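Working notes for the structural subgroup meeting. M.R. asked for a predicted model of this chain before we commit to crystallization trials. I am recording the input and output together here so anyone reviewing the notebook later can reproduce the run.

Input as submitted:
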Amino acid sequence: MSAYHPLTAEEAIQLAKSLPGRFPDHAELQCREIGDGNLNLVFHVTATNTADSIIIKQAVPYAKVVGESWPLSLDRARIERVALETQHSLCPNLVPKVYSYSDELAYTVMEDLSEYTIMRKGLIEGNAYPEFAAHIGEFMARTLFYTSDLGMNQQEKKVLAGRFVNPDLCKITEDLIFEDPYRQSANNNYPDNIEDEAEALRSDAALHFEVALLRHQFLTHGQALLHGDLHTGSIFVTPESTKVIDPEFAFFGPMGFDVGAVIGNLLLNYAAQPGWSKDAQTLAERESRLLQMAADVWTHFERNFRMFWNDDLLDEMARTPGYQDHYVAQILKDAAGFAGCKMIRRIVGLSHVADIDTIDSDSARENAQRRALAIGKNLVRHHRHIQSFEEILSLVKESSIRNEVSQ
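Returned structure, recorded in token form:
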């Protein structure tokens, strides 16, 4: 019989006390549950009169955002923990350290990042993060290259991939990103004033064709170990530092999915800026900064990825002239398409983003929703023909202008 049960705050404290060397022997510990996500409990345990602290994250056997009617496997806690350990081994400065875990109780004890800000919150506040693009570009290049057939022994990769079979959370992605927005679904969630946009999504056969191609990539193309949910709510930042958290959606999939997730979330914040910027100058500065950040993410990813390829390639056939360029070009195409799909689902699907939903003005919020959908659809429609990131930026700007004209 399983010993699993949701932890109480007192049990979290006792667990913290049992960790060797983590807290002073006679420290008085305090605990509060801070989980505001869709799937888990998160306990913040601190010691009175010292700076010592930890995070305990525990999976619950259902999706919190819906309730017990949506059951989920607790094995996702093991998947997240192994992903954190794998990513930390490759990028120790960019991923929190795991201190302890229990697969039976589905919890992971890890480094506390309370001094950091959730990136989504920081972007909404208009903050700049000048090191972010370099950090996340390196994170993606390292974690993707060194868990792929390019940078890892192919047989060892197959064994590792077997540890990341993640059907429950992949099913969430498959449904919420690649299916629900394009049909009538109980999971969809959008206001009545954009019903015309939702209907347009459901009736656009040409768009459906492009989404079907991207969905096929997601289902079948196991290039590397993905984070699987790499949005700005899963990244903690300061102006000087970046930490990537929450890889419970990790599985072996197409590299462009992680790259596209980051870019798509930056573009969601871009789409929301008219609702957050107090004047035309602020708006222009923030929009320019966000587009440059998105471009820099790709630049740093590509630069690092090509460097790792040139220095550490294990696949001899991949040394064939022209293959590296072809491979990287395909990641860019995939990233553009996946970014668009991510943007679309965040407007009409089950789980939205605070960048847009918390805009006070009804008209500005609706404009941001329509702007995000215009950008997302344009990226999806044209992703297979993109040759450079400059073309992505052109599609974004073109979509924004068309949206403004139609208002």
